[in-house]
Amino acid sequence: MTSSASRPVQQALPAETAPNIIRDDAHALEVAHILAADFAREAAVRDAERRLPWDELERYTASGLWGATVPKAYGGAGISTVTLTKAIAIIAAADGSLAQIPQNHFYALEVLRVGGSEAQKQFFFNRVLAGDRLGNALAEVGTRDFKRRTRLVREPAGWFVEGEKFYCTGALYAHWIPTLVVAEEDEAEVSYLAFVPRDAPGVTIIDDWDGFGQRVTGSGSVKFGRVRVEPEWVVPFKASFDRPTTIGPHAQIMHAAIDLGIGFGAFEETLRFVRDRARPWLDSGVDKASDDPLTLHQIGDVRLRLRAAEALVERAGRFVDAAQATPNEDSVANASIAVAQARILTTKAGLLAAEKLFELSGTSATASEDNLDRYWRNVRTHTLHDPVRWKYQAVGNFHLNGKRPPRHGAI
To answer: Do the Cβ atoms of 134 and 270 come closer than 8 Å?
Structure first.
């Protein structure tokens, strides 16, 4: 998954001016539509040239959307999960990579909301509202047992992070890198999320992501060589899964929104291509591809499946919002299952839309200058985040046996 070529890494600079503050849910969606129109213009070129979207991210941050989930008590809009997923899908339809980059930013904010101390919430929420971006360093290379090797070492001289991470989406562009670490406590390993400053001595960002999709997400590697962190930057992580919280379903529903948005982007491209450039099949008896009855059938099928997936995402968002308001075993389990159902359908609908883009548009749609294959590459890559086959198992086990799903970020 990594490239042997070393690419230079740019440093994320502090915001020159404070971002706008999103007023409410309606304002968030209005801003998302404006940004999507902006991002769509050069999305194909950015993907083809692997042009990292630094300028776009500055506009994205300045818009205020990155602070939109900060609770109202801390100066943010505290937008609903339903609205957040709609905003993510709007951006994803324009550029799948730009939709994914802040996913772990919002994830870290949810970890803070659920498990952070009052002082930690005040500090990091204020930093985000001031324009700081949060990346991630969660996954590791060569850990099939999912045990974490990156350590939080506590010494009289201070606290230090040591280890290496991969699939670090957004870390390349971040000011802080929330990093999953383990610490030895009473002969057991306890996990924490350490918020590591991007410019701290010992942090090495490696731009080595070379997946065929989501090319500009910056999902490369991060190395931590005895990086000092302050205790107030370390947030409990395992403890937030020992009780029913919405961290898992909140993370998963954002993935569903990304896949949904990419699917809708592919569908809109299909409509444009069929209307303007595609040719009807010679046996169809029509003069325009847009009048081909078999094409119309397939267009209708894709639109129906996308709309059904959209409805499931919105439904799941309401379950997550309810669980955030009243977290308990039942509300969190119901949210997790609703999100798993949405993940199943957004995976299928997104992939279908990207595939039908070529089937219905014809050979000319494969021209490299259009770079329409980015939709399939992006949705295929992103849907591999975790295996959708296990979503079916969780849904079936819940409804047949009353078995609540496990509490972690993959359900």
So the answer is: no
